[in-house]
Amino acid sequence: MRLRRLDLTRYGKFTDHVIDFGEKVDGGPDLHIVYGLNEAGKSTALSGFLDLLFGIEERSRYDFLHPYAAMEVGAVLEVGEARHELRRVKQRTGSLRDAAGQPVGDGVIAGALAGLTRDAYRMMFSLDDQTLEEGGNAILDSKGDLGELLFSASAGLAGLSRALSAVTGEADAIFRRRASSTEIAGLKRRLNDLKAEREKVDVQASAHAALVAELRRAEQAYDAAMTEHGTLKARRDDLGGLVRAAPLAAEHASLSAVLAPHAELPRPPAHWASDLPALMVADATLGTKRAAADERLERLRAEIDGIAVDRRVLGLADRIEALSLGSARVQTAEPDLPKRRAELAESRSRLAQLARAIAGPENDADPDALAVDAATLGSLRGLIERWSGVEEKLSRSREEHETASEAFDRAREDRAALDRDHPALGAPQRAALQAAAGRVRETDLLARRRLAQAAARAKSQAAEEAMRRLAPWSGEPAALEALRVPSARQIQAWRDEAAEHALRSKGHCERGRGLETEGAALAAKVAAAEAAIGPIGDAEAAALRARRDAAWVRHRDAMDAASAAAFEQAMQAVDGMAEARLAAADRLAELRGLRRDLEVCRAGIAREAELLSELDGERSDLSSRIEAAGLPGSGDAASAGERLSGIEDWLALRERAVAAIAERRTAEAECAAVEAEIAREAGALGEALAAAGTPPEGLDLPALLQAADTLLAEDARYAEARAAADKRLRDDARSLEARRKDAAAAAGDGRAWEEAWGRALAGTWFAGLAADRAAVRAIVEAIAGLPERLAERDGLSHRVEAMQADREAFLAELASVQAALGEPADGTEPVAAASALRDRLRAAGHALDARRAKEAERADLEAKRRVLLEEIGLHDARKAERLAFFGLTSLADVSARLDECARRDRIEADRDKLAARIRQEAGAPSLEAALERLAEGAPEERTQAYETSDRRVEDLNERLKELFAAKSAAADRLAAVGGDDAVVRIEAERRTILLEIEDKALRFLHLRTGALLAERALQAYREKHRGSMMGRASDAFRAMTRDAYAGLATRPEKDREILIGRPSAGGSKLATDMSKGTRFQLYLALRLAGYEEFVATRHPVPFVADDIMETFDEPRSEEVLSLFGKVSHLGQVIYLTHHRHLCDLARKAVPGARVHELP
Amino acid sequence: MAFRFLHTADIHLDSPLRSLALRNPDLAALIGGATRQALSAIVDLCLEEQVDALIVAGDLYDGTQTSMKTARYLAEQMERLHRAGIVVYKVRGNHDALSKITQELVLPPSLKLFGGRAETVTVRKGDIEVAIHGLSFAKAHAPDSLLPKYGRPRPDAVNIGIMHTSLVGAAGHDPYAPCSVADLHEWGFDYWALGHVHARSEHRGASKVVMPGMPQGRDIGESGLKTVSLVTVRDDRTILIEERPTSIAQFERISVDLSNLDSWPAVLDGIERAVEAARSRTAAAHLVGRLVLGGRTPLAWRLRRDSDLLRAEIEHRLGGAGQVWIDKIEIAATPPDATAPAGGIADPLDELGALLRDEILRQPAVRESVGALVKEIRDDLPPDARRFCGEDEAEFERFLDRLLGESGAEIVARLGQDGAGTR
Lengths: 1159, 423
Description:
The complex is a heterodimer. Chain A is α/β, with parallel strands linked by helices. Chain A has 32 helices and 13 strands. In chain A, strands 2-1-4-5-6 form a 5-stranded antiparallel beta sheet, covered by helices on one side. Chain A has a 5-stranded parallel beta sheet with strand order 7-11-12-3-13, with helices on both faces. In chain A, strand 11 (about 1105), helix 31 (about 1115-1125) and strand 12 (about 1135) form a beta-alpha-beta unit. The longest helix of chain A has about 60 residues, at about 700-760. Chain A is flat. Helix content of chain B is about 35%, strand content about 20%. In chain B, strands 4-3-2-1-11-12 form a 6-stranded mixed beta sheet, with helices on one face. Chain B has a 6-stranded mixed beta sheet with strand order 5-6-7-8-10-9, covered by helices on one side. The longest helix of chain B has 28 residues, at about 395-420. The interface between A and B is large, with 85 and 82 residues. Chain A: InterPro entries: P-loop_NTPase (IPR027417), YhaN_AAA (IPR038734).
């Protein structure tokens, strides 16, 4: 494939830029230097080329000027002999187009590229600084490995060694035998940790069984020890009891001995000892107490007999007390009575004055009779208070009623005036008027008339214009409409006929022309054939034969040598001709054929001309027929077709004119119709107006409409006024009625008051004064104080009477009491007499009280003496019992004997306690049994046995504690086996780690196997390509180093083969020992060899290098360019640079190299 | 008054999950004890539904299970049922029969463990009499059918049989108490509560024959929804079977077609979409997915080379996708069909690949070296991690074939990409 032209149509900074690489010159180099300054777009052009081949990249960065949708790059590609003009746009599908813009498949490019991908193409066939640098490094990385170098130079891959060693490194990180830092080793360690962790927290089933067994054993041991402990402890306790009981038994015996002498001592009741001191005290005091009591009784009796009491006075005690009260009242009233009597007289006098004031001085009335009861008085007062209100209401309601009545009359008058001055339109008239006006307005007659008139004018103009267009025809519309015209079908028939004529004519002409051309060609061919054959045509042959025959005739006549020679010559000429004709028989035949064809052709031409002239006759016939229709528009047209077109045009104009005439007619009719309608509506409106009382006089429709509107509007206004007046009338009527009711209510109230007034006065002494309301009011006010005064007088009178009655009763009682006591009643000083009586009564009372107190004291004393006597009796009995019990005579002796008994009892109690302890310690039911047990063995032995068993019990206690701890621990251990998920979690992690180990192992194997396979594959690649590539690379390297190196060679090393340089000076140099620049050149040499290798078996593709010679000196640059020139004979080489001198250098090194400049 | 019971089997209590997804400690914390959670979920369900009984048709725990913590946990759960008055009917399967913890286990008295001789237990619920027939594996192997040992159905009772069986079994696997579904239908029981096969199946016929499957899958081989059967025996003796999901984590293969995805982000988007779709179909709280990436994409080689990066990026993206975890990524994607011209593709990389495939892989020495390499690492690994390269000679050879093929393709892709940076 070759890039003939690159069209940067809309790509990056380029718009419609073309780089034309031109034709490949046969035998010449195909090297192109593309020169451009920095940023001129060299890289853009390269990218554009790749985008053309492989499609514009998804996220292309060349869209800064032309957006994605507009981007386009094109090229002319030469693939073998074929040439393809292609364009690429940015689209998902169908992005490759041909020159016409039609989508084409990528197959045409893919085929030329032998299936290379974009990346592969870029890596293999484009070189820049960076790839050169990386390539140089790759030589170092590979340590000169030939397989790798050949492969990476062919594929343009630089990082091969690094990639391979990365793979190995990755694998080593995962696993190395016996290494501890690998990932797998780490995981294995974690597995061990987990195992330990599990062992720590888990209890296996087997261990569980062991734990259960252990618990059971511990329980059994503990139980056995407990039993032994119990037995031993019982024995020890038994012995201990006996040991402790032995001294107690001895003590018991000694106490028994102490008690023996007291065996005869009697056993008094227990309380005697405590009672005895009190008994002895009583014995000494009781006799003295009785003597003192007897003496006091005697004294009291004498005192009682000495007190005397006044019994008569005491019998009248109540009356004397009452007298003393009455005396006090009489004493108080004595000075008060005269004062009260004076007050009474004054009160009566005031009452008499009041009565006179009320009833008048002439009437000496009884004040009691003047009083009126309070209810009546209250009613009267209330009525008097209400009177003014009732009266005021009466007068106000009357006034309001009159006002309302007047307003109502006025409203009625106003309403009547409205009807009189502005009578309403009757409903039929109003309806007729509204209907007529509404119809006029709805039908919009006036507007329609305007429109119709305008339309009629327009249509009339249009019709006239259409008529004018018909020129040169002229005449009346009616004549136009009446004109007979050929039908469309007729015209079509004529047209078809004319078309057929034209077709036929054209056919004849074309055939004629074709025949003429053919004829000319045939004539030329005949001429050519004749020329080619030379003069051996039939004519020439005939001429030669004629000459021969003539020569023969002459020879026959002359028979000389000259004639013979002439004849022979003629004969030879004929023979030669015959031979030539024989040899050219085919061509002659062909010539003859050509001549025949020429004849046929000429006949054809004549026939066509004949047919044409026939056709002319038919044509003129058609023209005359058309002419006969006599229509304008046929004018002086050249052909029937044109004439028909003219006729058709005129007919179309006529159609339009006829239509315009019809439209004008319609418009005029419309005008007339509207006018008629207007007249009708005006009549109707006029009638309605007349009926409404406004007869129209010569008004047109708009004026009529206005009149009707005015009339209707006025009517509506007065209707509103009437409605308002009606409303006011109704309001006033309502108001009047309300006032009337008020007045009636006020009158009713007045009457009710009068009745109540009459009723209130009816029972009073001043009922006759009913009409004189002021007089009644005065009486009522005056009478108000009367009852109070009457009560005051009655009270005074009553008190005076009561005082007098009291005094008389007191005196009578005093006399009666004095008589009962037998005292003289002189009636003087009654108060003093009463007082003396009271004193006497008081003295008698005191004497009685004193006597009663003494008598009570004596009774008390007698009771105490009786008790004392009983006590003495009891004491004597108790004393006698104790003395008799002991056979003694004094209580003091008894006391001594009782002490003796008490001592004996204490000793006995001690002895019983001892007996009980002995029983308990010896574990015997009775003292006797206990003593028997004690007697059984020797005490020393027993003590020894006890101490032995006590020590054993202590020992067993310790053992029991240990066993219990063991049992608890075993139980705890079992209980600690929880149902938690610690083990599950560990197992889950362990399982995951095992999976991870497998995963890592697989990864390791993939990496290591891959590396192994790659190494072997590279070796195979080396074997396959070394032969062809090494020679080329060696030559290129020598040239590039300007013979500093004689070339390249290899050296085997283990299972590898190492590339070495052969310096011209002799020896060898490892690639790793070369200078950096030399390594670049070595790499370039290998790349060029790789390219040649590719080209050797495939279609070439353009090789692009982008300024790769920055580090090369001028001579080497020249060599490289020269090498490019050489390679460019195999395939197109494009070198991009911004160095002007390289362009010159290229021209010098490779004559025929072409330079293209980017703007 | 209906008789209701829950039927499960093959819980394999405390048997760990097998997935590299559990490398994530968060996930390990969440589902490390998944079989335990499944058991407690089953017990919860029993309590919620107030069933009358729980039927466990064998393999409650693994044969290799030796931790008494497992036994203790099991006992605790059974105790919960006991307290709620729910009876457990259990037979031993091949795994239970092996287990050492069986002897040490102390279970509540209401748990009925059927012995090595067939037994029948009857219970009455309302008007229904239910006869439950069961038989345990005495040893880990039962090469013959156990069916003849079962009692005949009790007339007038609803008969339920509990059996641990591989049914007709699968080729290449030892048969465990084999018997045919047809024989079971003929036996005359109303419901056969089976266990042993880890995938659920119901065989309708004369009776209900139900293999409930395990309640919690443990690896990608045990993928899909896992359930127990909630069975209601109605008064009219008809039987209603409802499936109830039990697994906390569900394993699923998630196939992703990467065809026409030609950029890394597009591939990630495609995977994310597929995973989200799978998540929305999954009932369990956690989805552990194995991504199977297929289709033709230009990124086929890059996906292989950068599979670790791919995994990290997907996991990062799924961080917000609600309890989705990646078990493993299988890359089956291939590069798009290049229209290779008749003479082959001119790229030396393709040539190298062809050399590798057609020559190097066939060299016996190469195969030998690789075989030695495999053995070297295999023998260095813990015994539990050696199965990846096959259990016998034939499997080993197949493994080598696969290893060589895959490694060759990978290294060529990698050289092309790493050698060129972007290529």
